[in-house]
Amino acid sequence: MKIALLTTAALVGLLVGNLTAMAQTEEDGQVASDDGEVYFRNCSDARAAGAAPIYAGEPGYSRKLDRDGDGVACE
């Protein structure tokens, strides 16, 4: 009985922790897509999250955020 309660408590803790992390991430303007990739809605959100500038190949880089197409977004 104790093991079942501990297991249930651990699972609830993991679920709440994941939901809290997701909410904090979305509040920062950083959003995880369905495939787990990170993207920013705009450069203001990237700067607020401390991620700018974002270089091509880094999480959060998007050509839509790279105005001059030089591989550096949110310069």
Short account of what is shown:
This protein has 2 helices and 4 strands; from the N terminus they run H-E-E-H-E-E. The protein has 75 residues and is of the alpha+beta class. It is elongated, with a radius of gyration of 17 Å.
Overview of this protein structure:
The radius of gyration is 17 Å and the shape is elongated. It has helices spanning 2-27, 43-48; strands spanning 30-32, 38-40, 54-55, 72-73. The protein has one domain (2-73). With 75 residues, the protein is α+β, with helices and mostly antiparallel strands.
Could you give the topology of this structure?
Elements: H1 2-27, E1 30-32, E2 38-40, H2 43-48, E3 54-55, E4 72-73
Antiparallel strand pairs: 1-2, 3-4
- Unreliable runs, pLDDT <50, ≥5 residues? 9-16, 18-24
Order of helices and strands: HEEHEE
Output the structural class.
alpha+beta
Task: Give the number of DSSP strands.
Answer: 4
Keywords: Plasmid
InterPro entries: Excalibur_Ca-bd_domain (IPR008613)
Which tags fit this structure?
two-stranded antiparallel ribbon, elongated, 75 residues, single chain, Excalibur_Ca-bd_domain, two-stranded antiparallel sheet, 2 helices, plasmid
